[in-house]
Design brief:
Shape: globular
Number of helices: 13
Strand order of the largest sheet: 1-2
Distance between the termini: 53 Å
Radius of gyration: 21 Å
Length: about 375
Amino acid sequence: MAIPLDYETLRLIWWALLGVLLIGFTLTDGYDLGVAALMPFIGKTDEERRLAINAVAPHWEGHQVWFILGGGAIFAAWPFVYAVSFSGFYLAMFLVLAALILRPVSFKYRSKHADPAWRGRWDWAMFIGGFVPALVFGVAVGNVLQGLPFRLDSDLRTFYEGTLLGLFSPFALVTGLLSVAMIVMHGAGFLAVKIEEGPVLERARRIGTFAAIVSIVLFALGGVWVAMGQMGFRLEGVIDAQGPSNPHYAQTVAAPGAWLDNYGRHPWMLLAPILGFAGPLIALIGIRTRSHVLNLTGSSLATVGIIATVGLSMFPFILPSSIDPQSSLTAWNASSSHLTLWIMLLVTLIFLPIVLIYTAWALKVMFGRVTIAQVRTNPDFY
């Protein structure tokens, strides 16, 4: 089969698509997680909590598609990355899945009884279903930036030498809390455009203000930590972007501060951290001026900027190794075959637009603010 795109170009496309899928998941399911994490704090009465629940109820199940697409893309396009990350993060992934299971169960079972204690317990279960995934995803990113404790032998067998508690290093906790703040800010921004004016929205604005400020502080702290800490990896020698998918093919070295190299070589990449700082500021302006669209736009830009900053800082690395840099996985040595990437690209060009169109259509159909009156009278509401 004649493939019109060379191996390097396909690898770059799939590296970018991986980022697009991660951003897509965070932009869509992110506000669902954020609202869930806000649940015990923004609603003082059962009706107020139901108002927040029904703001995300029409969408959260459909947004799981992005999570599935991300996992599928890693499995098919980056098999080495899938093998190392899903084995090394096995217990963390189990924790995330257990928390994510709590969320739909909470939606379905919360209103089965009118007992306040029953509903209160499910509200906290919903909080866990939003807070824990946001925290663990951020902790995982922090560990990736530091390098994971894995190595590959001469037969490319993976040996992971880390523990679950070892994932929660001080830097990883900073990135985990940044992820929580970003998700909570995004959830509060979504509520600003989705629920009626009232006490719930006022509480969401207050918490959103705090989350935006914390996002700026933690993003800055993480940047300083990366710049001054012992973080970063660099490819040495001749880089063959068309070479075989073999992590031992190119030499990798640990290089403190190397995560800032790309910004010197490609100044346009500075747009990502600029968005990471500008997004929360725009959200704050939106909250202060009661511009709901500006609020949600700011939280969305912050999400794009923060995630893109991680990817662009590390490029071409995807999973560096802290104990054996030579085993690090990059865009050039960890992909599937040329033919596989091409076939998957054709499939993606067909189905990704369908997902985008469906997501936009669902948001359009469900457009409009949820009100307390609807919560009281609509039999289809949770």
